[in-house]
Amino acid sequence: MWLPLLGLILGLALGLLTDIQIPAVYENYLSIAVLAALDTLFGGIRAHLQQVYDDKVFVSGFFFNIALAAGLAFLGVHLGVDLYLAAIFAFGVRLFQNIAVIRRILITKWEDRHKNGMKNQ
Amino acid sequence: MKNRFPNRKSPKFTRKQFILLIVLITTGFIIGYSYNLSKDEVKITNNFLQQDESYREELIDQKERNKELMDEVNHLQEQIRDYEKSFASNQNEYEQMVDKAEQIRLLLGQIPAVGEGIKVTLKDGEYNPNTTNPNDYIVHESHIFMVINELRISGAEAISVNGQRLKANSYIRCNGPVITVDGKQYPAPFEIAAVGNSDTLIDSLQMVGGVFDQLLNDQIVVTLEESGKISMPSVNEES
User: Fold this and answer.
1) Residue among A6, A14, A55 whose CB faces B12 most closely
2) Helical segments of chain B, H only
3) H-helix segments, B91-222
4) Residue B231 to residues A52, A106, B84: CA-CA distances in angstroms?
């Protein structure tokens, strides 16, 4: 349980410590990548709680979503259409849905445990 | 990494954990990196805004200071004049000198000038189809010079062009259809106002073969207006 958290902290530290400058044009892509990563992460957590979690789906989804979002933004920049908005919208909606499902599952679990505890007493 | 969680029963446990680790590291990296970037950006924009603000405040301070100093200058000059006046009432021989000083100050434009005077307006002549050159009937700065010089010679205390008081070291420059008086542009018609004895001024301008005749010869529309009271601010009061 602690290993992923450690990984997250390690990644954060790495990201904060790197001093590479990227052109301002590509900052859009980065924001989309952040959104895609968060979306996939919460999707994974939800799948895990619903017991439908699958390794391959998770990992492929993670990298594929990031790549797709970045590609869409790239295409949008070159076509003159703000296509990255589509990615932001889709990921944003899914993020909220995933978090809502996770919350509901956790509440149900907590209530169940609470009831069981009461009964046992 | 292998036997850290022996109580889990899934055989794919370690692989799963490893994948999760990589994904989380990537996520953390992206988030941290973009946080870093946006932080830098915010810092830069903040710096610019602060600079802007500080410059503006400095400017306001300077302007206020200028105004204070200008008030002080005016006040001190007023005091000097008062001293001189009291001086003159005591000792008659200095009276003439004080008068002269007053006159010089008026010419320099350091004190407001109020009194009777005249206004001369120079307008471009009507379009004349017989002449191809419009320079033949528009007002040039030489005409304005003529009028101003004549007014000065005949004892005008203070002169202004289109409301701008002339100083001792004022300059007037022809600038196409407009003239530039001490850096400010004025279009035609040009209104030259002078404070002084209006009879003398008018007579000197209307002398036969004098300034007015020359102006009329150059197809310029000249109007002369006598005024009982013309007041001009001192040059110091203008910003």
Assistant:
1) A55
2) 13-90, 95-108, 141-153, 198-205, 211-217
3) 95-108, 141-153, 198-205, 211-217
4) 94, 87, 23
In sequence order, what DSSP letters do the residues of B95-125 get, joined into one string? HHHHHHHHHHHHHHT-S-EEEEEEEEEEEPP
> Which DSSP letter does residue B4 get?
S
Interface residues of chain B, partner chain A, Cβ below 8 Å: 1, 4-5, 12, 15-17, 19-37
CB B124 within 8 A of CB B220: yes
A–B CB contacts, 8 A cutoff, strictly below: 96
**B24/A18 CB distance under 8 A:** no
Nearest chain A Cα distance for residue B6, angstroms: 12
Task: Give whichever of A107-116, B129-138, B166-175, B182-191 has the largest mean pLDDT.
Answer: A107-116
Contact B211, B147 (CB under 8 A): yes
Cβ–Cβ contacts within 10 Å for residue B216, how many? 12
Global confidence as pTM = 0.43
Nearest-10 crossing angle of helices A55-79, B13-90: 40
* DSSP reduced 3-state for A62: helix
Give dist(CA A53, CA B230) in Å, integer.
95
ipTM confidence score: 0.73
3-state secondary structure (DSSP) of residue B91: coil
Tell me the pLDDT tens digit for each residue of B28-58.
888 888 787 777 777 777 778 888 889 999 9
Contact B127, B221 (CB under 8 A): no
Q: Which one of A1, A3, A53 would you mutate to disrupt binding with B, by most B Cβ within 10 Å of its Cβ?
A: A3
Cα gap B131→B124, rounded to integer Å? 14
Tokens of A5: 């958290």
Q: A34 is written with which tokens?
A: 């952040």
The minimal CB distance from B24 to the residues A7, A22, A31 is found for A7
